[in-house]
Design goal:
Layout: H1 4-7, E1 18-22, H2 26-38, E2 43-47, H3 51-62, E3 72-76, E4 87-90, H4 106-123, E5 128-131, H5 136-147, E6 154-156, H6 160-174, E7 181-182, E8 185-186, E9 194-195, E10 201-202, E11 205-206, H7 221-242, H8 247-261, E12 266-268, E13 271-273, E14 284-286, E15 289-292, E16 295-299, H9 306-325
Parallel strand pairs: 1-2, 1-4, 2-3, 4-5, 5-6
Antiparallel strand pairs: 7-10, 8-9, 10-11, 12-15, 13-14, 15-16
């Protein structure tokens, strides 16, 4: 006979899909809200140790499900709410302060993951796990080691948001819809990330051959560097202004969730455990990866310049040093 706690919550046995979002802060609630609006899963569960807040946040979203494809939204401080989830999205962690780098968040967040990951595995051992908590590359690597799960089953949101920021800025320069701009950011989700300009295209036109932009410039080094700088620093700008980034990462995580649960085989720059990718191994960082129902699939190897390769290797080494400092 199921426990009282278990029976309170929808499960995904027999098929409606279920997403569990861990953490009911600004990011977690944005992820749950975006997933509900987009209909990424039939059932959405929100888990947080703050019982009053998590129930209120879930209820606020649930009151609007009439207007969404979603079927139920529940919130609880009982980890049983996560049971039988198909996808677990972890957003819980220390809040990034103005001027603080993502890597500076590492120590407290790693300690949290050492407690949270085993507890989640007990109730959702077969789920695909996506980590959004910063520093996401370190968190993903640590979680993969703690869980012992296949690398495909544990990945981070990586630079999906950074890639969206890059495409947005290129769109502003060209007037072309972001959906027709094909450019990626790889490496750390943070200060050492690397825009892959050499493979960037608008339609099938290489970015370097685009010609004059709306501002009367061309995509030379100066313009590319300005855009790259804005991509890296945009989160700091938002944090300085409003205290947290949440809407865009909510949409980005929802986009990844849809790729998993609808088995879309979509190419996204998630953070995954790399094995001889441009000479980089045993580190989690962002690379163009095919994402589907099994999680992180084939990692694509786009052509890169020597400078881009060097930047990616430096990014990997930076992340590796941080992970090693915590014994991973």
């Amino acid at each position: 006979m199921p426990s009282q706690a278990t029976s309170l919550y929808p499960t995904s046995f027999g098929r409606p899909s279920k997403i569990a979002v861990i953490g009911a802060g600004a990011v977690g609630t944005a992820v749950a809200y975006a997933a509900a609006i987009r209909g990424d899963a039939r059932d959405i569960a929100l888990y947080d140790i703050n019982a009053e807040k998590v129930r209120a946040e879930a209820l606020d979203i649930a009151h609007g499900i009439q207007f969404t494809p979603c079927g139920s939204v529940v919130g609880s401080d009982d980890i049983e709410v996560v049971r039988a989830s198909d996808l677990v999205i972890v957003t819980a962690g220390a809040k990034q302060s103005p001027g603080q780098s993502r890597l500076e968040l590492a120590e407290s967040t790693v300690k949290l993951m050492e407690k949270v990951v085993p507890a989640l595995q007990e109730v959702a051992p077969d789920a695909v796990y996506m980590f959004v908590t910063n520093p996401v590359d370190i968190v993903t690597y640590v979680a993969q080691k703690i869980s012992g799960l296949p690398a495909s089953q544990v990945f981070g949101s990586g630079t999906v948001l950074d890639t969206s920021r890059l495409r947005y800025l290129v769109s502003q320069e060209t007037g072309v819809a972001t959906q027709n701009i094909h450019a990626y950011v790889a490496g750390e989700h943070g200060d050492s990330e690397v825009p892959l300009w050499s493979s960037a295209e608008i339609g099938n036109v290489p970015l370097t051959q685009w010609g004059t932009t709306l501002s009367g410039r061309v995509f030379g080094r100066d313009l590319r560097d300005e855009i790259a700088h804005e991509v890296v620093n945009s989160a700091y700008t938002i944090i300085d202004g409003k205290g947290a980034t949440n809407y865009a990462i909510g949409l980005a995580a929802s986009r990844i969730a849809g790729a998993v649960l609808r088995d879309e085989a979509r190419v996204l720059t998630i953070s995954t455990l790399l094995n001889d990718w441009h000479g980089i191994s045993d580190v989690c960082m962002a690379a163009p990866t095919i994402v589907g129902r099994s999680g992180a699939g084939r990692v694509l190897v786009p052509p890169v310049t020597d400078d881009e390769r060097q930047g990616l290797q430096q990014s990997a080494e930076k992340l590796r040093e941080v992970a090693r400092s915590f014994g991973y």
